[in-house]
From TrEMBL:
Segments annotated as WD repeats: 10-51, 94-126, 137-179, 180-223, 224-265
Family of this protein: Belongs to the WD repeat COPB2 family.
Protein name: Coatomer subunit beta'
GO CC terms, sorted: COPI vesicle coat; Golgi membrane
InterPro entries from the UniProt entry: Beta-prop_COPA/B_2nd (IPR006692), Coatomer_complex_subunit (IPR050844), COPB2 (IPR016453), TPR_COPA_B (IPR056176), WD40/YVTN_repeat-like_dom_sf (IPR015943), WD40_PAC1 (IPR020472), WD40_repeat_dom_sf (IPR036322), WD40_rpt (IPR001680)
Domain of life the protein comes from: Eukaryota
Gene Ontology MF: a single term: structural molecule activity
GO biological process: endoplasmic reticulum to Golgi vesicle-mediated transport; intra-Golgi vesicle-mediated transport; intracellular protein transport; retrograde vesicle-mediated transport, Golgi to endoplasmic reticulum
Keyword Protein biosynthesis: no
Keywords: Cytoplasm, Cytoplasmic vesicle, ER-Golgi transport, Golgi apparatus, Membrane, Protein transport, Repeat, Transport, WD repeat
Domain COPA/B TPR: 593-773
Length: 881
């Protein structure tokens, strides 16, 4: 079978469509309708782009004349109309026939159109001669339904008529050259075969038959049966080896044009089919129905192409085999993803329509498969070496061996073009896969066989789409519709089991494979380079898998098929459906290195490393890291970020320190500090925290390590840098209450300062309250006035005098510094009663005594009546603040 992919590209609902045409260069489809309109649809944008209201009778014929920018129409009002499709103007109109016009044919080179009509005539019109009728062709005895010009001889044309005949005419001669008879009812449609090899015509008729005629010996060579109603349109596809027929039974049938086998039946539920149009150079086919029109794209998704290890590419363009050689490109600079400027050489045409082309492993032969046949050619000269019928063909790992799947139950193995063995796999053969082992797919799953003796190696419950073996035969990728698996083939275990028959079950050798991983991606095409599996995915990524890691090489803008990798070029080659070849750079050194790492062959890896360019080193390093080789990754990476990460993970303080110095990044210093602390490298930690300006961290470090000197430095540094909380805490921890107070004052925290003073430095209260009052008075005079200075209102602050003494007592009894180890011996402040302890203490400083005296004076002058307690009632505003 041809296995054509059929994709619907446009569905345009409309009134009944009587004719369709495709524009040769614009993405346009012309449809003439039964209701009198003619429409142009853009099948790329899916929009109706132009409409011509021709008349109110059916328009049964409409054609593009691209070289004149015209649409020519023929309608039941017997008029031919010519429109300019750019301006939509009607250029010309004339009465062409005395009955309905059925068909228009445009001459490919001359300024002619041919028209046919229910008046039984065919007429030739010359637009260069003011649309004069240069000839009338007479001979049919019923409506002339369709006329087509012979693509191989533009002076010849054929006509189909309801008089049940087909006539072939010559321009310049008014009577037909000959008549083909055979249909039992009226003939509706006709087409020429455009390939060079056969002088064929095809016709469809109301007898529901399609006939293929040899117009040289004038015989019907084939009759296609199947349509259940009148056949209304037929087409020999100008590119693909297919015949398309449409019928009033609502179906479109696709037949193989050489084997005449029915390949496909399309039913889009749009009622009767009226017309079909295909176009040279395009895979689009337009179809007209009772309920609208459709464009389908026909063709195989995957191009038939193959490349050998030296860069010789062979592909099939339809049945023509062509060759292109990468080497012939010379030293032209190649950019990733750009189409390669390849010279193409014709190799001749193939007897079958190629669906796949495949080089054998050593590249000496190519096999072409299609139409249930295979032909093995020499790759150089395309001389056939062997052929036969086969549903599928696969090469073995050994270049002289291959297998074919002859039917759903029989597989044959050949060696040196001679059949070696044929066997019937237990559960049938729905597909076969070449490579190191012979894979056979059945409903039950996949079975791997030994090429040598067809012994079962292992059955696996999986439905593979593709199988790719690495060159060494140690790794295999099995791709399914949903994901792909990487398996390791354990050949020693297989050999051992074959020897001892231990661990062999009905499913084969249990230990034959080890699953290394499953990846949720759909592989379209793939190949191995060393232990790296390169593939294209269903979402058009070009990736490779190595050791559980996926590396994306490129995002492709369309579906591409891997052709091969050429290590010498460091390039990967891919082809697309249109036979364009593109390439992507992929360094062989990187692949080799990764392969060596996967095989734990570090001496090899070290040898390869110098050949890996600097800019690729980090990628390789990431790979090493993922494989668990962090030390090696650190040595290989050139990315400071990556190296720093690795150094941290490995506890490499020195390297990390160096990188942090270079990077000058706070974040790095912080990370390094953490590591240093965890490694008890406090000196380093301190430096790092300083660099990171991490005062909180420094405070923790300084206090935890009981380093008073550091706390002191921290306090000063923090204050300088405005890290007030840390500064305050550091002063406070050192008992530097004055500094704490000054810090609060300096930072505008006057109420806090006042309360600090009230608690720890009563001697300062007066000063602070004054400041507080001044400041507060700016926003609220009343509130400011209600702040009482304890030294003025000692009655409100009992024990103030004792507090002064205690303050002085504490100050003088406190040693400057105590070693941290004494901490357990010191009674916590909250457990002390300082007022008790200070009883009887005589302050020695002049300052303190003076203050006490002042206080006494103040108290003497105090007039209690002055205080209006009703004032001390904070209003809403202050509460809000
Ligand atoms: C004919 O049908 C088409 C589409 O169905 C519509 O756009 C057009 O207006 C119709 N023309 C007439 C003359 O009714
Ligand atoms: C058709 O007939 C014309 C004139 O009768 C003749 O010149 C021409 O060669 C014929 N063509 C074919 C293909 O028989
Ligand atoms: C006519 O030619 C075809 C090949 O195109 C051949 O198969 C057929 O037998 C020929 N018929 C006659 C009657 O010569
Ligand atoms: C098939 O064609 C005949 C005329 O030959 C016609 O009478 C008949 O209605 C057509 N069939 C259908 C289903 O339209
Ligand atoms: C193979 O080649 C031989 C002679 O070159 C030719 O007769 C034969 O038809 C060819 N067969 C195929 C299938 O190409
Ligand atoms: C006065 O108080 C405000 C808060 O109300 C504060 O922001 C400001 O810094 C203070 N001014 C002084 C000089 O302390």
């Amino acid at each position: 079978p041809l296995r054509l992919d059929i994709k619907r590209k446009l569905t345009a609902r409309s009134d009944r469509v009587k004719s369709v045409d495709l524009h040769p260069t614009e993405p346009w489809m012309l449809a003439s309708l039964y209701n009198g309109s003619v429409c142009v649809w853009n099948h790329e944008t899916q929009t109706l782009v132009k409409t011509f209201e021709v008349c109110d009778l059916p328009v049964r014929a409409a054609k593009f004349v691209a070289r004149k920018n015209w649409v020519v129409t023929g309608a039941d009002d017997m008029q031919i109309r010519v429109f300019n499709y750019n301006t939509l103007e009607r250029v010309h109109m004339f009465e062409a026939h005395s009955d309905y016009i059925r068909c228009i044919a445009v001459h490919p080179t001359q300024p002619f159109i041919l028209t046919s009509s229910d008046d039984m005539l065919i007429k030739l019109w010359d637009w260069d001669k003011k649309w004069s009728c240069s000839q009338v062709f007479e001979g049919h005895t019923h409506y002339v339904m369709q006329i087509v010009i012979n693509p191989k001889d533009n002076n010849q044309f054929a006509s189909a008529s309801l008089d049940r005949t087909i006539k072939v005419w010559q321009l310049g001669s008014s009577s037909p050259n000959f008549t083909l008879e055979g249909h039992e009812k009226g003939v509706n449609c006709i087409d020429y075969y455009s390939g060079g090899d056969k002088p064929y015509l095809i016709s469809g008729a109301d007898d529901r038959l399609v006939k293929i005629w040899d117009y040289q010996n004038k015989t019907c060579v084939q009759t296609l049966e199947g349509h259940a109603q009148n056949v209304s349109c037929v087409s020999f596809h100008p590119e693909l080896p297919i015949i398309i027929t449409g019928s009033e039974d609502g179906t479109v049938r696709i037949w193989h044009s050489s084997t005449y086998r029915l390949e496909s039946t399309l039913n889009y539920g749009m009622e009767r089919v009226w017309c079909v149009a295909s176009l040279r150079g395009s895979n689009n086919v337009a179809l007209g129905y009772d309920e609208g029109s459709i464009i389908v794209k026909l063709g195989r998704e995957e191009p038939a192409m193959s490349m050998d290890a030296n860069g010789k590419i062979i592909w099939a363009k339809h049945s023509e085999v062509q060759q292109a050689n990468l080497k012939a490109m010379g030293d032209a600079e190649i950019k990733d993803g750009e189409r390669l400027p390849l010279a193409v050489k014709d190799m001749g045409s193939c007897e079958i329509y190629p669906q796949t082309i495949q080089h054998n492993p050593n590249g000496r032969f190519v096999v072409v498969c299609g139409d249930g046949e295979y032909i093995i050619y020499t790759a150089m000269a395309l001389r056939n070496k062997s052929f036969g019928s086969a549903q599928e063909f696969v090469w073995a790992h050994d270049s002289s061996e291959y297998a074919i799947r002859e039917s759903n139950s029989l597989v044959k193995i050949f060696k040196n073009f001679k059949e070696k063995k044929s066997f019937k796999p237990d559960f049938g053969a729905e597909g076969i896969y070449g490579g190191f082992l012979l894979g056979v797919r059945s409903v039950n799953g996949l079975a791997f066989y030994d090429w040598e003796n067809t012994e079962l190696i292992r059955r696996i419950e999986i439905q593979p789409k593709h199988i790719f073996w690495s060159d060494s035969g140690e790794l295999v990728c099995i791709a399914t519709e949903e994901s792909f698996f990487i398996l390791k083939y354990l050949s020693e275990k297989v050999a051992a089991a074959q020897e001892t028959h231990e661990g062999v079950t009905e499913d084969g050798i249990e230990d034959a494979f080890e699953v290394l991983g499953e990846i949720q991606e759909i592989v379209k095409t793939g190949l191995w380079v060393g232990d790296c599996f390169i593939y294209t995915s269903s979402v058009n990524r070009l990736n490779y898998y190595v050791g559980g890691e996926i590396v994306t090489i490129a995002h492709l803008d369309r579906t591409m098929y891997l052709l091969g990798y050429i290590p010498k070029d460091n390039r990967l080659y891919l082809g697309d459906k249109e036979l364009n070849i593109v390439s992507y750079s992929l360094l062989v050194s990187v692949l080799e290195y990764q392969t060596a790492v996967m095989r734990r062959d570090f001496s090899m890896a070290d040898k390869v490393l110098p050949t890996i360019p600097k800019e690729q080193r980090t990628r390789v390093a990431h790979f090493l890291e993922k494989q668990g080789f962090k030390q090696q990754a650190l040595a290989v990476s050139t990315d400071p970020e990556h190296r720093f990460e690795l150094a941290l993970q490995l506890g490499e303080l020195k390297i990390a320190y160096q990188l942090a110095v270079e990077a000058e990044s706070e974040q790095k210093w912080k990370q390094l500090a953490e590591l240093a602390i965890s490694k008890c490298q406090f000196g380093l930690a301190q430096e790092c925290l300083h660099h990171a300006q991490d005062y909180g961290g420094l405070l923790l470090l300084a206090t935890a390590s009981g380093n008073a000197n550091m706390v002191n430095k921290l306090a000063e540094g923090a204050e300088k840098d405005g890290k007030n909380n840390v500064a305050f805490m550091s002063y406070f921890l050192q008992g530097k209450l004055d500094s704490c107070l000054e810090l609060l004052i300096k930072t505008g925290r006057l109420p806090e300062a006042a309360f600090l003073a009230r608690t720890y430095l009563p001697s300062q209260v007066s000063r602070v309250v004054k400041l507080w009052r001044e400041n507060l008075s700016k926003v609220n005079q009343k509130a400011a006035e209600s702040l009482a200075d304890p030294t003025e209102y000692e009655n409100l602050f009992p024990g103030l005098k004792e507090a002064f003494v205690a303050e002085e007592y504490v100050k003088q009894s406190l040693p400057d510094l105590r070693p941290a180890r004494e901490y357990p011996l010191v009674t916590p402040n909250e457990e002390r009663n300082l007022l008790e302890e200070a009883k009887g203490f005589e302050p020695s400083g002049v300052m303190a005594s003076q203050m006490l005296l002042d206080l006494e004076d103040d108290l003497d002058n105090l007039d209690l009546e002055d205080i209006d307690t009703t004032d001390i009632n904070l209003d809403e505003e202050i509460l809000d603040e």
